[in-house]
Amino acid sequence: MVSLLTFLGMIPQLLKTGSPADIIVSFLDLVAITVPAALPVSMAFGVIYSINKLKDKNIFCIEENKVIVGGDVSFCCFDKTGTLTEDFMDFEALVPCLEGQFHETIKNRLNQRASVRESLKVEPYLNTIFSNMAANHSIVKIEDTGELVGDPMEIKLFLFGEFSFNHSNPDPNVLFSFSSDRGNNGSVYRRFEFDSELQRMSVVCSVQ
């Protein structure tokens, strides 16, 4: 900045006494004078010192130039837990809520899945929850292999409910249907994809 301001002030005089080549040489000369020769060496020493201090805190930097960039960082924002440390997500448990009250937790365990059938008999509101898990998603099924493709968490929820997915339906208006041995059967006619502003998705379906 100093060299630029000095050069701008010298331009009228240089135009009177010098050629364009002399003007360029004068500008480069000002830049060379303004920037100390020891500056790159001083910065290198500063980076080495910073790396050693980071090592003392078990922080290792494999790219030295990133240390300088890191000095300008004020905030670090990380994604949700698990995304940075795992390459998959898993479904842990379902906590039903009815009339503002949380009910008994149903964990994603084989022994607890077996008790779901009994819970549905005494807590019929679980049918609505499971039907919602089976209908509100963007999963598709590859008919040749039977593989479910879509959001991993949506697939986890669908499988937790022990549903079967079916694209084939005699009704041409049906996008897909789902069923289970418990009697949770339904058909989805229209899907409204997830809206980030509304923070929800919805479907038009019939449930038996």
Q: Characteristics of this structure?
A:
10 strands, elongated, two-stranded antiparallel ribbon, 208 residues, alpha+beta, 4-stranded antiparallel β-sheet, 2 domains, 42% helix
Give an overview in words.
This protein has 208 residues and is an alpha+beta fold. It has two domains: 2-70, no CATH class; 93-207, no CATH class. It has seven helices and ten strands. The strands form four sheets. It has a four-stranded antiparallel beta sheet with strand order 7-8-9-10. The chain has a two-stranded antiparallel sheet with strand order 1-4. Strands 2-3 form a two-stranded antiparallel sheet. Helix 1 runs antiparallel to helix 2 (20-34). The relative contact order is 0.07.
How is the secondary structure organized here?
Layout (H helix, E strand, L loop, with lengths): L1 H16 L2 H15 L4 H18 L8 H6 L22 E2 L2 E2 L2 E2 L3 E2 L2 H13 L2 H11 L4 E3 L4 E3 L2 H9 L3 E3 L9 E4 L6 E10 L4 E8 L1
Antiparallel strand pairs: 1-4, 2-3, 5-6, 7-8, 8-9, 9-10
Helix pairs in contact: 1-2
At a glance:
This protein has seven helices and ten strands. The chain is α+β, with helices and mostly antiparallel strands and 208 residues long.
Number of strands: 10
What is the ordering of alpha helices and beta strands? Answer: HHHHEEEEHHEEHEEEE
Mean pLDDT over the residues:
77
Strand order of the largest sheet: 7-8-9-10
**SS strand fraction:** 15-25%
Distance between the termini: 75 Å
Task: Find the structural class using helix and strand composition.
Answer: alpha+beta
Overall structural domain count: 2
- Range of helix content: 40-55%
Low-confidence regions: none
Question: Given the C-alpha coordinates, what overall shape results?
Answer: elongated
Report on the biggest sheet: 4 strands, antiparallel
CA gyration radius, whole angstroms: 33 Å
The number of helices is 7
